Amino acid sequence: MGGVWVKDPDANHELNSRGAKAVLYVLNVGDRDIQIGSHIHLADVNENLLFFTDKNAAAQAEQALTDQQLTRPEQIAEARRFAHDRSKTPGRAPWGFRLDVAPGDSKRFSPENTPSDRIEAVEMGGDRRVPGLRKNKPAGDVDLD
């Protein structure tokens, strides 16, 4: 486990047990892998990662990305129509959520992954303030609630 020291390795340890959990589906529409660390606010990650709250929407986006009648920019634009809105929506992933992985771990999303990656996300804890991966982040979006 990335960066986790365990006193009793034989014991059952539950990580990220507090707060809400969510299942998301993720598609990378970029041209290279994107890696997300364990404590990164999902709504702030690279915009080439599209999040879906249900598998059907992810499947529709995957279909759009393989439509031979569309150019690549048109395919991506069509896939974005099905993606979940990342704007401030407290209590709805990806807003206020991070990967449900051990501290220090990360997950890499490749453009070749189809069907989309299914991930589990957990609600961010602490002060619930995320000051910044984006320069253009609206001031009101620092507070997650």
UniProtKB/TrEMBL annotation:
Source species: Streptomyces tsukubensis
Annotated transmembrane regions: none
Region Disordered: start-end pairs: 83-145
GO MF assignments: hydrolase activity
Keyword Hydrolase annotated: yes
One GO cellular component, as annotated: urease complex
Protein name as it appears in the record: Urease, beta subunit
Biased composition regions of type Basic and acidic residues, renumbered to the chain: 105-130
Protein origin, superkingdom: Bacteria
Classification via Gene3D superfamilies: Urease, beta subunit
Coiled-coil residue spans: none
GO biological process annotation, one example: urea catabolic process
InterPro entries in the cross-refs: Urease_beta-like, Urease_betasu_sf
Hydrolase is among the record's keywords: yes
Classification via Pfam families: Urease_beta
Alphabetized UniProt keyword annotations: Hydrolase
